[in-house]
Amino acid sequence: MQRLALHTFSRCYALSAFPITYSGFLLPNPFGMPSAPCLFTPKARPRPSLKRGSLPRSITVTRTSAALITFSHLRWNFVYQRPQHLLSRIAKQRPVYFIEEPEFDASAPAHWVRSTPEPNVTVLRPRTPVPNAPGFHEAQIPTLEKLLRDFLEVDEIGEHVAWFYTPMALPLLNQLNPLAVIYDCMDELSAFLHAPRELIEREARLFQLADVVFTGGPSLYRAKKDKHPNVHCFPSSVDTEHFSRGVADGPEAADQAHLPHPRFGYYGVIDERIDLGLLDALAVAHPEWQIVMVGPVVKIDPATLPRHPNLHYFGQKTYAELPSYLKGWDVCLLPFARNDSTKFISPTKTLEYMAGCKLMVSTAITDVVEPYGHFVYIGEDTVSFIECCEQAIAISEDDRRRRMNEGERVLAQTSWDRTASSIQQLIEQAVTRNRRAGAVRRTATVRTAADDLKSAPVAVIGAGPTGLSAAYHLGERALLIEKNSTVGGWCRSVEDRGFTFDFAGHIMFSADPYVHQLYNMLLGDNVHWQDREAWIYSKNVYTRYPFQGSLYGLPADVVTECIVGAIEARFGAVKPARPNSGNGHGTNGANGHGTNGHGAGHAAASVTNGHTVTANGTNGHAVAANGTNGVNAHAAAKVCEGDVKDCCGDGILESSAKLVKREAAPIQSAEEPKNFEEFIYKVWGRGIAKHFAIPYNRKLWAVPLSEMETSWLGGRVPMPDLEEMIEGALKPSPKPMGPNARFGYPLRGGFQALMNGFLPHLKGSTLLNASVRAVSPSKHLVTLTDGSQYRYSSLISTMPLPQLIRAMGNEAPAEIVDAVAMLRHVSVRCVNIGVGRENLTEKHWIYYPEDTVFHRIFVQGNASPHCNPPGGFGLTCEITYSEHKPLPCDGDALIERCIEDCHKVGFFKPEDPIWATNQVDMPYAYVVYDHNRKESVELIREWLAQHDIILAGRYSEWEYYNSDHAFIAGKKAADAVRAAEQKQEADRLLPKPLTMAAGATKSN
Length: 1004
Ligand SMILES: Cc1cc2nc3c(=O)[nH]c(=O)nc-3n(C[C@H](O)[C@H](O)[C@H](O)COP(=O)(O)OP(=O)(O)OC[C@H]3O[C@@H](n4cnc5c(N)ncnc54)[C@H](O)[C@@H]3O)c2cc1C
Fold this sequence. Notes:
Elements: H1 2-10, E1 67-71, H2 82-90, E2 96-99, E3 103-104, E4 111-118, E5 121-128, H3 141-154, E6 160-164, E7 181-185, H4 199-209, E8 212-215, H5 218-224, E9 231-233, H6 240-249, E10 263-267, H7 276-285, E11 290-294, E12 311-315, H8 322-326, E13 331-334, H9 349-355, E14 359-363, H10 366-372, E15 377-379, H11 382-393, H12 397-411, H13 416-436, H14 449-454, E16 458-461, H15 465-474, E17 478-481, E18 493-496, E19 499-502, H16 513-523, E20 527-531, E21 534-538, E22 541-544, H17 556-571, H18 625-640, H19 651-655, H20 676-701, H21 722-730, E23 742-746, H22 752-756, E24 765-767, E25 772-776, E26 781-784, E27 789-791, E28 794-797, H23 801-807, H24 814-821, E29 825-835, E30 845-847, E31 856-858, H25 860-863, E32 873-881, H26 891-904, E33 914-927, H27 933-945, E34 949-951, H28 963-989, H29 995-1003
Helix pairs in contact: 2-13, 6-9, 15-28, 17-20, 17-21, 23-24
Bound molecules: flavin-adenine dinucleotide (FAD).
């Protein structure tokens, strides 16, 4: 890990999203004490526009004074931030009503508590007797609807505009008749701790209903801009004067005045977004420093806060008091954790600290790094964060001056006044546009889980591609339940320091026109198609995939073995077998794979490779072909039919499997291969088996190949075309072209974008962060880990089959429990690495059959250029593991091992800096087609069908599905539900047979 720390520390961020101009100011002393005055004065300069979607020129905007009714998850008297800054300014033009989340009050009927914290701003806090329903919980909605109607009537609210900070309040829109709907998206709320499950669905609906959307920082803008045609980026601004004057002229806070210097300070909310481990380490590393934390502790247990004599918590202070704390700090901190909840954070305090002329140290938060990385110290990890703090207090005068000047330039370009005024304009534009269009009252039509229960929906467990497709095809009746905070299952993506990584390499491929229609609907033009560059690395050479067609460049003896082996597989032994020969490729126990039992009596081996196939004679599976090789060749040619031209058990199946039901392998021969290992020898011959197919597949499958059957390969694995093979051995094979060589990938947003594409099209309900704990087939009831229950008419399960049966507890009969215990799977660990060098390679993915820890590298950086930050390049090392093949090491050691192996195979240069590393674990990754699979799955499927439970998806049907198959599997499941319901309805309507007639039959 040493190399990691070194490289990451030396990374220099110098990206600025803002054009910068210069103006001078007086510098503070090294510890920021007020001996030298520092005063920034806001200047009127145009703000650079990051906006998208502009108004047609022909619209004339007329100013309205329509009231603004806002719904917020933050209370007005909580930390003073974006909502207060914007709304207090907008209140100069129109009355603002700020509706907060309800507070529990059992002592009285529901009522409003009103206050007027600022001129023309009315804060309305509902107090309701509804227990255990935090926030705009669905149980609160009926009560709130009534309160809202009363408010509109009593306050005689006429024309109004609706403004949402939280989509959770969206059902209340039904009570309004707004001139325009605004969504000010200031955070990715769905990623917050305890985020309500319905949030994502309501946000998708809000995107449909809103006239204009504002986002906080640039990363949130990037995440939301494709969801609505009129999204505008308004990063947090600053009231420069408040902080600069307060620091220069105001008093210092009394409770910190006694603390010695140097002091490091933070103000803001202290919740799951703060890296407590980092604070702890900082306090321990420098007991002589004082760390001051000002702000309320929310959502996290205060007992978890690190405690040290030099770490001081002063609690929440008012906005007016903040400069008095800032004044006494030498360095300001932005100690944010790097997790989902901070991915889109755009800290308001960055510019406020700057306005107070303070040096800053931040963790690598995108919206700090990108716009302010040139004057904020950025610590990538704990060690470098502390080092940055050390550098900050030892800063030279020149460097301080430079940073302050840079900061001042940024400050000069922004102010809350200007932001509020631009926002007002956009509101007016939306109102004008709606008036012209003859605005119609819009309703939110957001269904609640209570409604769903009433109508007994079709529950869909899992929002991977199968579940999303099922929910989409089911329409309003679907209740989609997903345990993660985002949809997509294994087709999700993660972001890390500007890199986008998928959960293992994912690409789009399908031969099915309907899937292409879906691609179109889900991605629109956010897609690009490329000819694949799939390669294999062996014998220190990179050769094109498929192996058998691209032998050129491999050592001559390897090429000979492969060609001779293929000829023998097709036509029988080239040389006669010697007597007393060894057992061909009989035993491969060295690899823990036992005896494959079909090689007895074959020629002695001259090279040992675990299956000893450099035999002079036959190799066991071609022996019968001596007499019947014409038949075999013919059968093989049949297998070759179609347009699939690859041979390895992974690549083609990930990239270009056809959408056909897999039948048993159509190889007709006197000697059917009994298992996958035999199949490899029989189809590809000993050379290819030895040099690629066996070692690669052993590495990939992590289970003995002799324990696998071959139905999953049926019809898709061709015999090598000898002519092509020889040609491919004599000259470099050209880049593959044509439909099978093409694959698609979302241009922006990683593979996740394909999954998110479903969200606006889902008409039913979606629950996120909702993990199914129990399923009762007899009661048709699903129970979540939080105890909530949902009745269903039918259930579509896409969760792993063993977990589903386990969730049924005693209701699953013993034979079903036994059957599910037979199912085997392989796990994948992905080690994602972001390197500080562009265009590492032109390849898309590479197979490694030899001794690297990974079996495949997916070159994420080439899936789309937008997966990389400027100057960087990402890739994913995939490592399978199972009980037969445990991971050789874990954690940082595994990352280090992957980096070493990337160097070993020539992928990395010694000087390449590593910018990002992380790991993603996929416990269920490959289902194993062993000899019990088919029977076990059928038994379970039939039993579940009797209880209206349909299995759909890769880990539910235990099928080797890609995401395109998953889309189809979801659709089929939705169709099956509808067909079953229609049948039930038809049965219900059928006239019942007359008892008389029945009796008459009997008596006959
Ligand atoms: C290494 C690898 C590479 C791949 N490469 C490709 C590729 O290049 N192209 C391609 O098209 N496909 C690829 N695939 C296949 C693709 O990932 C799968 O086909 C697809 O994810 C299967 O979708 P699914 O919805 O059936 O299952 P999943 O994606 O697993 O979705 C199941 C969902 O159920 C949820 N869930 C599980 N338990 C519960 C519970 N108790 N309560 C609530 N929710 C629950 C999970 O969180 C998950 O979201 C690859 C797969 C792997 C492993």
